[in-house]
Amino acid sequence: MWAPSNEETYFDNMDNKKNVVHIMPTVEKKITFTADRDLMRAKKACLLYAEKVDFKELIQLRLAEKCDQRRMYITTVDSASFQELKQDQSLNVTFAGFMENVVRMLKDCQAGKLELCLSSRETIADQQSHDYLLQFVEIRSFKNLVHLCLPCRSAPLNTVLFYINAALDATHKKLFLVEQSAQQLQMELNAQNAHIDQLNSDNAKLRETLAENTRQLTDKHSAELKEMQLALEKLNEQRSNELERNRRSIAGLQAQLERITLEKAELKTMHEQAEKRTQSLNEELSCCKARISTLKEQQEKLQTELTTAKKQERKLEYKIEDLKQHTLELQENIQKGNKEKANIAAELEAEKKILHTKRQALEMASDEIAKANQIILKQSQDLLTQKKTITWRTEVALQQEKAIKEKEKLLSMQEDELQQARLTIQQLRDEIPQQLESMRQFAKGLEEKYTTQILTLKARLAGGKENSSRRANRK
Fold first, then answer.
1. Which of 111, 103, 98, 97 is nearest to 22 (CA)?
2. What is the mean pLDDT of the chain?
């Protein structure tokens, strides 16, 4: 277990009192006292003090019973005892955090979330002075939870006397202040009593003066009433005279009123006639205003129509100029088209002549081919006749071997010539259709070219005619 703190006497020393700071104000709290043997619980009203020392790791909690402040219990924790406490209860904070948590738990106790329980424990063999445990307990339905358990012991007589003397000094100071305030209040009461006496004497004097003033005022009022009665009598006489005069004046006024009513009726008739005339004049004015407004509107419409007509004339003039320019451009385009058409016609005629010459060349080639075919037929017929003569003259051939050999040479040469003629004919047969095909493609290309040019010219001419027709329609 932890050892008691060696600095408990630091708080009950007047020299160190300047460094002692209250962590929280003094609180009256119900503390639960329990005994281990009989497990008796009793709640007593106690005064709780929580203090610490500036610039030093030292805190003290002090409990004193309200009824008997001689029963005092002290819990002091310094750095050494905090280390033992930290090791025994497995705390995970520093001393500053420990102080903050203790303050928080004290506030929870004040709010009713936790309870403080002071339980006695048995004495140990080495007779330690800590014979109580101060526990911060959270009351639960199943089992109470002890958040912190601090060593506590009953305060020695010196500390009890020190704190009782401090409380007595504080009460003496309060009594001295109360006596001073009571003396000051007594002096103020005496001053107020003297002031009240003076006010009573002044009140008596004022009452006497009021009585004299009321007597004088009654005398004055009685005299004034008599004077007023006389004045009223005189006023009544004057009033009666004035009433008679008023009656006479009223009769004259009634005659004047009758005259005025007659004049008023005549004026009403005149006024009605004038109103009728004004109404007729107003109607005529309204008609004139309406006519003037219609005339103004017509004038404005005419002006707008004139302006629009002028604008249209200007636009038409601009359009006529544009159309003239367009017609000139179309004429130029037509002339250019005619020139292009003449050029194309000349080109077509030249191409036709070229085609005619090529056709003539082809016809001549075909004639030559026919003649060559006839020569080949003739030569083949000659060969047949010669072969027949050779067969017929086999017998003579032996005799005329030399002549035959010569003739064979001639035949071989003629066959070579025939072979060459056949090759040339075959080449001509292969080349002539290719040339014809190329000439046909060339003719088709020329026809397509000239047809596209003619179509474009026709489209241009048609577009020019449509534009001219549109412009004429716009005009």
1. 103
2. 79
